[in-house]
Amino acid sequence: MNSLELAWKIRRHGVEMTRISKGSHIASILSLADILGVLYSDILKYDVGNPKLEERDRFILSKGHAGAAVYSALAEVGFFPVDELMTHYADGSRLSGHISHKGVPGIEFSTGSLGHGLSVGVGMALAAKKDKKNHRVIVTLGDGECNEGSVWEAVLFANHFKLSNLIVIIDHNKMQSLTYCDDTIAITPMEEKWKAFGWNVIEVDGHDHNQLRTSLSINPNLLEKPTCIVAHTVKGKGISFMESDILWHYRSPQGEEYEAAVAELEEAKP
Amino acid sequence: MRDTFVRTLTDLAEKDKNVMLVTGDLGFGVLKNYWETYPEQFINAGIAEQNMTGLAAGMALEGKIVFTYSIGNFPTLRCLEQIRNDAAYHNANVKIVAVGGGFAYGALGMSHHATEDIAIMRALPDVIVLSPGDIIETEAAVKSLYEWEGTGYLRLGRGGGRAVHNGPIDFEIGKAIPILEGSRVAIFSTGEILEEANKAAIELNQLGISTGLYSFPTVKPIDAELIQRVAKEVDLIVTVEEHNILGGFGGAVAEVLAGTFGNRAHFERIGLEDRYSEIVGSQEYLRDSYGMSAYKIVNKISNLVVSGYVIHET
């Protein structure tokens, strides 16, 4: 499956999963769909038959509330049956709202409380360096998540220890829980902050698969610093009435809204 | 205790290259020998405990046995959620080491007094809590913690430290260590306050009150079997901890006793009475001020016994 098809599947599953579960975060899932589509189609090294493959790339979703998008990607590439996605949020399911590794093959790490994933990725990258292993560690952060002080502790550390095998992707959709990031705790300019902390910074359109692929194909051995890909995204991307509307951080698509969302997706099917 | 910990860990690091020591920028003059000898197994994470603990979990999940090191409440309370979500939930081999349990940092003040850490760490599922009573227990605790698969907490006392035990001990995670036998009173002690509990037990015996003494280097899992046995044998069980009496060691013993039928023993807790330390002084001064010096322990126990409150007629 190519990255455009996978991204579309993630969006389609996301709408269905949040409808059935009456759950939140569809806009975050849509924002992240292209990034995950490219990662799981073209970038990450993994083995669905051996989720703990030693040489796998480590992928951590630090913005754990978009877990449904990762579950969708994992199911589509074959880690577990696609049907199981619809148990998301359900009693007895292994697919919790915020991403959890317990019993779910392919999930590297559980998150849900913001500001945790980057430090763990830092530890994994440091261990890989010490053991002279060649896999990469890729951590996806939200821009709102960058409010957390622990993120910046890890940013300082990764620079100091020259963790070139560590890549951060910021899903920079400019919105967080209650309103726009810059109306909450101003984070702009994101790129300059990471540069000032010593990171290699690449800006991309987070919905342009070619740009994502190119930026994620960097050879860590050529650098002596960690890389931050600031992916400019649109919250709710792909469903016009959800785009950049804070309502859809929490709202679940039901009835006519659900049907309209599906119609838009079907129209855009690759 | 601190020095015993570093010495023991240095020996382990020599044998196992996966042993890692991560400090939150503390240990001046203490960790130097370790980092000079095993620089590849040492990381200074800076003054950033959340990141220290998160990265420790990340390294542990890649096969390292990671000891995080700091003082007072910094490696526990400051980064509690990283311990819970990142280390414990993932069964990561992270060993959290705090130097300065209780009032060890005496005159530095309340911020540096660890007096709720046992209760808080004990509440985390799959986290073992070790609080050795002297340097002999410390050495055994470090070795056991190294061998333990999963997340653990090691609460240490001061820099130097003395031995209370006269010789080798039989150390096992989850087991208390008997020091003195006694028929009327049993003192249960955890952590470095053992030195005060030991003095108190000796004096009580000299006063004619037969008093046993048990050190609990493991608070979790607690030695329920021993507690239940002793509760049938003596008139009074007293826990002693350099810690809040709520939720910590006394709380753990109380949970066992409350769940047991037919106890003979009355139960009392000695520790900080649900308050913060707010006076200035040395560890000895603070222990006495807050009622946990040997002298205060003897007073409390002898008053309880003499009052007849805990003496059984049968």
Automatic annotation (TrEMBL), chain A:
Cofactor: thiamine diphosphate
Protein name in the entry: Transketolase
Family to which this protein belongs: Belongs to the transketolase family.
Keyword Transcription found: no
PANTHER family associated with the record: TRANSKETOLASE N-TERMINAL SECTION-RELATED
Keyword annotations of the record: Thiamine pyrophosphate
Superkingdom per UniProt: Bacteria
From TrEMBL, chain B:
Protein family membership: Belongs to the transketolase family.
InterPro entries with a match to the protein in the record: PDH/Transketolase, THDP-binding, Transketo_C/PFOR_II, Transketolase-like_Pyr-bd, Transketolase_C
Domain Transketolase-like pyrimidine-binding: 1-164
Co-factor(s): thiamine diphosphate
UniProt name for this protein: 1-deoxy-D-xylulose-5-phosphate synthase
Entries under SUPFAM superfamilies matching the protein: Thiamin diphosphate-binding fold (THDP-binding), TK C-terminal domain-like
Statement: the UniProt record of this protein carries the keyword Glycoprotein: no
Record keywords, A-Z: Thiamine pyrophosphate
Alphabetical list of Gene3D superfamilies matching this protein: 3.40.50.920, 3.40.50.970
